[in-house]
Design goal:
- The structure holds two protein chains of two kinds.
- Chain A folds into three domains: 146 residues, Sandwich (Jelly Rolls); 203 residues; 137 residues, Histidine kinase-like ATPase, C-terminal domain (Heat Shock Protein 90).
- Helix content of chain A is 57%, strand content 16%.
- In chain A, strands 3-2-5-11-8-9 form a six-stranded antiparallel beta sheet, with no helix packed on it.
- Chain A is rod-shaped and about 165 Å long.
- Chain B is α/β, with parallel strands linked by helices.
- Chain B is built from nine helices and seven strands, in the order βαβαβββαβαβααααα.
- In chain B, the strands form two sheets. In chain B, strands 2-1-3-6-7 form a five-stranded parallel beta sheet, sandwiched between helices. In chain B, strands 4-5 form a two-stranded antiparallel sheet.
- In chain B, helix 7 packs across helix 9 and helix 8 packs across helix 9.
Chain lengths: 613, 217
């Protein structure tokens, strides 16, 4: 994979640098490898007889001329034609920065504005077609007025004149590489930058996206420089931005890679940033006469050092964390740096100026690979997140099931505890009540002292106790009146048999909070004891049951009361009170109720008081 | 004179109850049986006026006897005999079609009076049973107004049940509602009948909902 990629890149490189050479054109094309040159600023072709014409070779690079200004100069090429049959054109593969073409005494055309800021055709081939009308049979003179970019930054490459049918395809091919592909690269790089900057906008804390966007935008600007014909600012200021941008490409990528691979080199990054800022300031402030030296020889070469660091950093990471993508990035980086080095040599005049600049292609390659790595990281993260979510779902389900199981177990345990509590309560009550009565009955039978009435009463008491217990298990929703009503159903046959009437003066009262079945049973025992005492001892014929509510004066709290009033003889014998009333007090305390007894010879009243809250 | 069939598997209790019935001038004991099978044979043969029935029999359930009597349309009034008169047994019996219940240890006069009251159109009820009936018919016992015309109980029937649940006797209720005591006991019997119908209807509805029976045919 790596080998194939390297082969592909090499082919592109060769194609870009050599494919559009016009060297192999047919004999009908006239190519000029040398010309007459005169450094004069007139606007029309200087006369041939001007003694200042001197012969020079083409391509002609002004780099070493050391002129003091950026005014145009003239080239003249003489040639002879016998016959012109077809449409002819003039092809200028490379000029820096603009040219006007004259054929014989006719102005053929130009590449745009010649006054400052002149049209920038330093990376754009020029072609002038259909010039056959201006050709003469025999001797002809072709004049080129060249406008340099800078006092010593001008270039005129080889010049060709010949049939359009032959030259135009060559021009178009060169134009494709030097313009069209660069335009596409510019758009692609800008689009990368825009897309990534939108992501960074949404995730500001992830600064690596910001640095990558900065690299893309910087690289897009550098590429744009090659296709921008007219700029809204001075050439000098524009070039300052271009050279600064090259530096910020390197700085941005280094910092991006640090973030991407989670490497902390804060001091070095601070140094890089200061380098970028100070370097840009120097480029801005340096004088025009030194600008291109500082930018091309000093600035660019310093950037090579940082580029080498960048390459080392990438290779080092690949060695420690080998992966296919990382090695592809190594190759892309080497290629991009090579392309940059190539362009630098062209800038410095060490390579022919008519070579196409390759740095935009390096940008597409390198930033494209990085963009792919970012996308892969993003999708890997998404996949990981999905996997984690699925695992989390499974764990949550398992945990939920565990919780449900635990809840069921806890509920079962609580139910068992509740049942055990109730069982203990019922057992306790039966032990004290029913059990006692039955044992007493058994004792009477075994003793042979079978008094039918006593035995019957003992067994009836046992049955009554069981019924009270059963009634206490019936949910009454903390309603005292319901308890009283249940008690009446139980006791009424006995009262009727004893000739005692019931007056039922019961009204609705507030519920008693927390009135459990245990408390219901205790209350019913109190009521049972009270009524039993009345039946046995009071000699009453009427029992009045009352309920109601009143507030105590002491604490201003609300109390619910139950009153059982009889019209008997009252408690006239203290001994009759005995354990029964003692028991009633005990049970009242157990249910947090207050028991009051009122006694007279016209009857007794038992009052049971409950606080409502 | 009303013919009575007594079904009770405990011998002493059966003999005691049989004696109470035999001693009453308006009641005639035609048979006292200890098993479901014997009771069923007697019912088919004699069609008694009254069935006094224990619920737990050695070879069957008293509830089934009550259901068979209702399903076959016999004019036999049924009363269950219970030790504790707990609402579970009593309401099950009433839902099956029983007209009332008796305490097994009740005095002779109470037992005879209860049977005669039932033949006279009334039905015994306790405060606890009344409270559970209110829940069964989904009536809020503290809501004075019951305006739902679709409700199975009439407004007066609901009032009777409410007073009963608060411990008022039939005579107390008669005074409060300005009606006779007989009317109160008749209301109770009607409520029992409605419970039986309500239970049957509810069972049919539930069966239809579950797809066990098809009401569309």
């Amino acid at each position: 994979m790596r080998y194939k990629l390297t082969q592909l890149i090499s082919c592109l490189f060769l194609l870009a640098t050599h494919a559009v050479s016009a060297n192999d054109l047919s004999e009908s094309v006239i190519s000029f490898h040398q010309a007459w040159f005169v450094d004069t600023q007139i606007d029309t072709p200087p006369p041939v007889k001007d003694n200042n014409w001197r012969q020079i070779k083409l391509p002609d690079n002004w780099y070493n001329i050391h002129r003091s200004d950026a005014k145009p100069a003239w080239y003249r090429m003489d040639f002879t034609i016998n016959e012109v049959k077809d449409s002819w054109g003039i092809y200028l593969p490379a000029v820096n920065t603009n040219a006007v073409v004259w054929l014989n005494s006719k102005r053929i055309g130009d590449g745009g504005r010649m006054q400052d800021p002149a049209a920038r055709n330093w990376h754009r081939p020029l072609y002038f077609n259909s010039v056959e009308h201006h050709l003469l049979q025999g001797r002809n003179s072709l004049y080129i007025q060249l406008k340099p970019k800078h006092s010593d930054y001008g270039f005129l490459g080889k010049i060709y004149i010949g049939p359009d049918a032959i030259l135009q395809p060559v021009y178009k091919q060169r134009s494709l590489i030097k313009q069209t592909l660069i335009e596409i690269s510019t758009v692609l790089l800008f689009s990368f930058g825009l897309f990534i900057s939108l992501i960074w906008f949404k995730r500001r804390k992830n600064t690596m996206y910001g640095w990558f966007a900065a690299a893309c935008f910087s690289w897009a600007f550098v590429a744009f420089d090659m296709v921008a014909q007219n700029v809204p600012i001075s050439e000098r200021l524009w070039d300052t931005f271009v050279f600064s941008s090259v530096g910020w490409i390197v700085i941005s990528i280094i910092i991006f890679l640090h973030r991407f691979w989670d490497v902390r080199r804060e001091r070095f990054e601070r140094f890089l940033l200061w380098f970028g800022i100070i370097g840009s300031a120097v480029l801005y402030l340096v004088g025009d006469e030194n600008f291109y030296f500082v930018s091309s020889f000093v600035w660019d070469n310093l950037l090579i050092i940082f580029s080498l660091y960048m390459t080392w950093f990438i290779v080092n990471h690949c060695v420690k964390n080998p992966s296919r993508d990382a090695w592809i990035l190594v190759v892309a980086t080497v290629v991009a740096i090579s392309f940059g080095g190539h362009d630098n040599l062209v800038q410095m005049g060490m390579l022919d100026f008519d070579r196409p600049h390759l740095i935009p292609f390096g940008g597409i390659l390198m930033l494209g690979v990085i963009a792919w790595m970012l996308i892969k990281q993003f999708t890997d993260t998404l996949n990981e997140m999905e996997k984690l979510n699925q695992e989390l779902d499974v764990r949550v389900k398992a945990k939920s099931q565990e919780l449900v199981q635990n809840y069921i177990l806890i509920k079962q345990s609580e139910q068992e505890k509740t049942l055990n509590r109730e069982r203990e309560r019922i057992m306790r009550d039966m032990h004290d009540g029913t059990g006692g009565h039955l044992v007493s009955a058994l004792a009477q039978v075994e003793a042979g002292n079978i008094d039918k009435t006593t035995l019957s009463e003992t067994l009836q008491n046992a049955l009554d106790d069981i019924r009270l217990t059963i009634d206490s298990l019936d949910p009454v929703d903390e309603d005292i009146v319901a308890v009283l009503a249940m008690f009446r159903s139980r006791i009424e046959p006995r009262l009727r048999h004893s000739g005692i009437q019931i007056q039922w003066k019961v009204q609705d009262v507030p519920t008693i909070t927390g009135f459990s079945p245990e408390k219901v049973l205790q209350l019913m025992h109190i009521l049972h004891e009270t009524v039993t005492n009345i039946i046995k001892h009071a000699q009453a014929d009427t029992i009045i049951f009352r309920t109601g509510v009143y507030a105590t004066t002491e604490k201003e709290s609300e109390h619910v009361f139950i009153e059982i009033e009889d019209n008997g003889k009252g408690f006239c014998n203290k001994q009759e009170q005995g354990r029964g009333i003692e028991n009633m007090h005990y049970r009242s305390n157990a249910i947090h109720a207050q028991l009051e007894l009122f006694n007279s010879n016209q009857g007794a009243t038992v009052r049971i008081l409950f606080a409502t809250s | 004179m009303y013919s009575v069939l007594l079904v009770e598997d405990e011998n002493n209790t059966r003999h005691r109850l049989a004696q109470v019935i035999e001693n009453h001038p308006e009641l005639k004991l035609i048979e006292s049986d200890a098993t479901f099978a014997a009771a069923m044979a007697c019912i088919e043969r004699t069609r008694p006026d009254v069935l006094l029935c224990d619920l737990d029999l050695p070879d069957g359930n008293g509830i089934d006897l009550i259901k068979i009597i209702r399903e076959r349309g016999y004019h036999t009034e049924t009363m269950v005999i219970t030790v504790f008169a707990d609402e579970q047994h009593v309401l099950s019996a009433i839902e099956a079609g029983a007209s009332g219940y008796l305490l097994k240890d009740g005095r002779a006069d109470y037992i005879a009076e209860s049977i005669m009251q039932m033949m006279d159109g009334g039905s015994p009820i306790s405060a606890s049973i009344a409270r559970h009936l209110l829940k069964k018919f989904k009536v809020d016992s503290n809501d004075a107004e019951q305006n739902d015309n679709q409700h199975p109980l009439s407004k007066q029937e609901v009032n009777v049940l409410r007073y009963l649940s608060k411990g008022f006797s039939s005579s107390d209720i008669a005074d409060l509602l300005d009606i006779s005591t007989h009317t109160v006991t008749t209301y109770i019997k009607r409520i029992y009948r409605k419970l039986a119908v309500h239970s049957r209807s509810q069972a049919v509805y539930e069966a239809h909902k579950m797809g066990i029976i098809n009401m569309d045919n």
